[in-house]
Design a protein that fits this description.
The protein is of the alpha+beta class. It has two domains: 201 residues, no CATH class; 74 residues, 2-Layer Sandwich (Alpha-Beta Plaits). The chain contains ten helices and four strands; from the N terminus they run ααααααααβαββαβ. Helix 2 packs antiparallel against helix 3 and helix 3 packs antiparallel against helix 4.
Length: 291
């Protein structure tokens, strides 16, 4: 049993190292070939390093990014544990080295900046997603966000990182002396975030639908007939009317929402419907829990 665990652990680390290496290479390729040559930024420590490198003309971006990440990684090791920091360190070192190596072998793209933002966003998003799958990242901004979140727990990690990225993008417009820089940077950030979501959550992201109806039996049958999805029933009481109703809950894929709305309309055109987005569905009919 002990030998099997040891083998599994080694295999897991080997797989994670391969993903981190490939993800870091894609990240560096996207930034050095499409983003930085076109004076676009995607936030993070690498984005800050690129701005400093451009403004002060001192060290190349990759070297600066590595130097800036060292104190963050040390702080992260003390506060958040070695597993996360080891993987992040691997990705940081590889991506920082390749940021300085790739320009010597791969010509930068200097064409349409919209295409540069899109291509860079796709490569960076893919690289970050591969690193996140292993439990690491390619830089230390998330460590900064964790520290801020500890001091101000009312701010979520996502909001903190968004604020940091907004500051970096705004600074890029000043340093590059171009408002268009911010617009292209926003496009690159949006693209990378969508790619990350697609890779991490795949096709099993979807919609969660709540339906408050007077006809729960008929509605449930119609949804299962037209959409082929199970329905969960819950008793609810209206806060204003104090009347008891039944609320149906149904998880669907995005492409199934139109059919579900048609099913609701056929059975009860006075139903109250709430449709929300959510990241991932696990369980019967969707991705298995072991995935």
């Amino acid at each position: 049993m002990k030998q099997k665990f040891s083998y599994t652990t080694k295999y897991s680390w080997l797989k994670d190292t391969v993903l981190l290496t490939f993800g870091s290479a894609l990240y560096a390729l996207g930034f050095s070939t499409f983003i930085e040559p076109n004076q676009i930024t995607t936030g993070g420590v690498t984005g800050i390093a690129a701005l400093i490198s451009f403004g002060l003309k001192i060290l190349p971006t990759g070297t600066l990014a590595l130097i800036m990440n060292i104190p963050l990684l040390i702080a992260g090791l003390i506060s958040f544990g070695k597993r996360f920091v080891i993987k992040t360190t691997i990705a940081t070192v590889i991506s920082s080295m390749l940021l300085d190596v790739f320009p010597s072998y791969i010509s930068p793209y200097n064409g349409d900046k919209i295409l540069a933002a899109l291509a860079g966003g796709v490569l960076i998003g893919t690289g970050l997603a591969l690193a996140m799958i292993t439990g690491g990242t390619t830089g230390g901004i998330d460590i900064v966000a964790k520290f801020i979140n500890r001091r101000m727990p009312h701010l979520s990690m996502g909001r903190i990182m968004l604020i940091i990225d907004v500051v970096i993008v705004s600074s890029a417009a000043l340093i590059y002396r171009s408002l268009e820089t911010s617009l292209y940077s926003i496009l690159a950030l949006f693209t990378s975030s969508k790619v990350i979501d697609s890779i991490l959550y795949g096709a099993d992201s979807g919609k969660l639908v709540y339906i408050i109806t007077k006809k729960p039996e008929e509605m449930s049958s119609r949804i299962m007939e037209l959409v082929g999805r199970g329905v969960t029933r819950m008793k609810v009481i209206g806060g204003y009317t104090q009347s008891e109703r039944t609320m149906l809950m149904c998880a669907t894929r995005r492409q199934e929402v139109t059919r579900l709305r048609a099913a609701v309309l056929q059975e009860d055109n006075e139903a109250f419907v709430i449709i929300t987005d959510f990241g991932e569905i696990l369980g019967e009919g969707f991705k298995g829990l072991d995935k």
